[in-house]
Amino acid sequence: MDLLGSILLVFIGLGGGLAVGSGFVAFLTVLDIVPRLTVFSRGRRYVRSYEWAFVAGALAATWVDLRDWSAAFSPLGTVPVGFLAGCFVGLLAAALTEVINVLPILAKRLQMQKFVLYLLMAMVFGKILGSLFQWIWFIA
Amino acid sequence: MGTDLVYLQLKKRVKARVGEILLLRDLAQLLTGEDHEDLGYLPILRLGKDQGSHMVVDVMDVLRKIRQQYPDVEVRSVGPLQTIIEVEAVYKVPSGVLVALVWLLLFVGSALAIMNFHTDVSMKAVHERIYYLITGEHNSKPLLLQIPYSIGIGLGMVLFFNHLFKRKFNDEPSPLELEVFLYQENIDQFVIDHEKSKDRGDRNGPSG
Question: Is A85's CB within 8 Å of B152's CB?
Answer without folding.
Answer: yes
